[in-house]
């Protein structure tokens, strides 16, 4: 399994609301993406940022998603996340 964490800084209450509304719908759409295994959206306890965590069957599935036209459509026409986001990826070593 492969996990990607995307850190999204929050600049305003309007941005927070927009992100939560947008990502509330994302989980259902992602279920149709090959290799997708799970999704979580975490809000920092100080409300400064979110972590969007996606789990994939493999690293190859994750890279296929971020290079796909569906990813670009979901991210405003961009083939990769832009702006101030920070993405970290992980290979799952142990899962219980």
UniProtKB/TrEMBL annotation:
Any Pfam family the entry gives: ABM
Gene Ontology MF, one: monooxygenase activity
InterPro entries from the UniProt entry: ABM_dom (IPR007138), Dimeric_a/b-barrel (IPR011008), Heme-degrading_MO (IPR050404)
Keywords: Monooxygenase, Oxidoreductase
Superkingdom per UniProt: Bacteria
Protein name: Antibiotic biosynthesis monooxygenase
Parts forming coiled coils: none
Keyword Ion transport: no
Protein species of origin: Alicyclobacillus fastidiosus
ABM domain segment(s): 2-92
